[in-house]
Amino acid sequence: MALTTPRTEPVTILQRERSLRPDLFLILPYLALAALGIVMVYTASAPRNELLDLDPAATVRRHVIFVVIGFAVFIASSLIGGRTLRSFSIPFYLASVIALGLVLTPLGRELKGAQRWIQIGPLQLQPSEFAKIAVILALAVLLANAGSNLQWHHIGRSVLLVGLPAILIFRQPDLGTMLVFFFVSVVMLFVGGTTLRQLSFIALAAVVIAVALFQVGAIKEYQIERVTSFLDGGGGDDADYNQLQSEIAIGSGGFFGKGLFGGTQTNLSFVPEQSTDFIFTAVGEQLGFVGGSIVLGLYAMIVWRLLIAAGNGRERFSQMVAIGVAALLVFHVFVNVGMTLRLIPVTGLPLPFLSAGGTFFIAMSLGLGLAHSVWMRRSPVRDE
Description:
Elements: H1 24-51, H2 58-78, H3 82-103, E1 108-111, E2 114-120, E3 123-125, H4 127-146, H5 152-170, H6 175-192, H7 196-215, H8 221-231, H9 238-252, H10 264-267, H11 279-311, H12 316-340, H13 358-376
């Protein structure tokens, strides 16, 4: 699939140089979502903290720190050139794989039955979030080296590249992030030039592996219950309760919402994990259909700009990076919002730039900054 079209007009040497101008149509929605996220995290966490006799602003204060760090990371990554980024992509990938391995050692910290974090002083680092960006970069290098005509050995290398961190993440366990890897890699391979036959083989292999894991009992019981409960229309488990309360919260918001701190579901802490995985329920209840639509519109604008950046990338590697980040953002938004609306099972994927979570916000800001760098260094000459 070609990202660019040939251009035949003569271009002077001076026209080939382009000043590094930021894309405000990408930056402003990013900042708007980050600002709204601060407000939503506070409204969702303050009543819960008060019930626990804690500082009402404790959660949002921590979140603001990570937002500031994330924005600094966004600016810094926007200044990284394509050649520099490409040279560091494989080392970054290897470092991410090593970090994922360390999570499974005694250095890893277990929380709620999952071992996904590494404790570094007062901070908890979740390597799987950075692994998403690392896989995008490494796969972009592979596809750039392969060219537009992908052979079967390129597909095999791609599967190995994505499969290694996916296996480590599966052992944590974190099925949601595994699904992220699958979706992002398929999108990048499709845009990179895979044939329908190759994609069909990948899909069939994924189904076979999933069935095998189910048969041998490698998939955790609570993960199976989430899917079966959803398909059965609710079985009364924790995941079903979360989605039921989420559905009530969003439905009660109506068209314009109940206003900040005006929602009973939010104020009385009926929705679990509302400042993280279920943050969209706070938006729906307090800001209503209008607020939820604005949030989705902001995401749509960012994805649009990422696709524009991909189409104007100076070379194939940069194009693939922008496509990968766009796919990552789309999947997170689709799954998270669909989960809160009870359209798909609970997966535990947070909402980009809105959910509380330091590592996730920083990693997504890193990915967005790298894609923004592609736009700032876009070529004035198509297929240059």
